[in-house]
Fold this sequence. Notes:
single chain; alpha/beta; 14 strands
Amino acid sequence: xxxxxxxxxxxxxxxxxxxxxxxxxxxxxxxxxxxxxxxxxxxxxxxxxxxxxxxxxxxxxxxxxxxxxxxxxxxxxxxxxxxxxxxxxxxxxxxxxxxxxxxxxxxxxxxxxxxxxxxxxxxxxxxxxxxxxxxxxxxxxxxxxxxxxxxxxxxxxxxxxxxxxxxxxxxxxxxxxxxxxxxxxxxxxxxxxxxxxxxxxxxxxxxxxxxxxxxxxxxxxxxxxxxxxxxxxxxxxxxxxxxxxxxxxxxxxxxxxxxxxxxxxxxxxxxxxxxxxxxxxxxxxxxxxxxxxxxxxxxxxxxxxxxxxxxxxxxxxxxxxxxxxxxxxxxxxxxxxxxxxxxxxxxxxxxxxxxxxxxxxxxxxxxxxxxxxxxxxxxxxxxxxxxxxxxxxxxxxxxxxxxxxxxxxxxxxxxxxxxxxxxxxxxxxxxxxxxxxxxxxxxxxxxxxxxxxxxxxxxxxxxxxxxxxxxxxxxxxxxxxxxxxxxxxxxxxxxxxx
Length: 498
């Protein structure tokens, strides 16, 4: 492949500076270190890059040995979307649980503790929080990642989360602008469309972003969604009207604008990542997120050369690229300063356990007055939907591991499909059944399985770990408002009566 520049001229350095690529492995590859020397200013981390806190700290130190002001970003929402604890489940409940508690001081404290742990590992930019108002119960990609369906509540908690995270020295990246909550399509797979009018958008989608900007969010992430009221032709990530006229102009935001992952099909399958990246920077974005799926030097070279080529052809103004690169450097300076100013006191029990405290408070329990806690090990049936890409399928969920700790001998298995109910009944035998679901209201097969279980075994315990939209049923019904490990821990305590 022809390389357009050596990596030392200003234009090429600016093109590298606006990229936020990923990479494979738990140590930095040589090509990434070389690109940092040439001007790359950010990297993105995913679950594949993290084995332990010590390893992560060593990795970020390795990156900073090449460039001391590098922005190290991560997609760590807590709850269902975790990279720090992708293999075990998160120690923090996600947004929906925090919204259910509706205590902004708790939300702020949880975000601060999450930020403290990120900072201790050398991470200084978090692609969180989600400020999306989950107004569409059928939303396949937001759901429990949202603080809820009420815009004012989402705005309060978004602001609290931003404040808490940044008080720990980690830049918040509020997403997905202008709001991904009213969609029934996952932008990882296709381009969603929101057909809301301007009044609805102002009172619903934009309210949490206004609150985040007022709280001082250092970054905002764009959504790969089409909002015809705002721009009938271009998805938000590529829209001058949305990123520059609305976000910068009307909302007065002057921080970093980051794109959602450019390899997501909403962009990659329609514009391609090179063309999409050029259009995004031209529209007002400052940083190109790529690396969730494409994580190699070839991708970095392709995007760098596309940006350089667009400037040289006159398609992308050089001053726009320079402005974008400058915003990246400004955030890097803030992050470096914040890391030096933020104290890192020794953890105490309250702070370490705040995630579990929040998960316990988030539970909604129906039927407890007539329920006798289990004393014998049950059979835990996971009614398992296909995980969306943001969550991933590598992170364990459910209550079985925690019930096994409390009630040794607990058994579990996952089930799906139209015959799930009858299969579970056969597998469980005479053991008490604990059925664990996730968004029952979105999956007819899941509701049918519960019908079959409750008809044959009315003493079945039901744990809903998604959005609790379906009516509660079962001998005991527990809504956890998320599937983080601590949510399963809190539900198991109720089931076992501890």
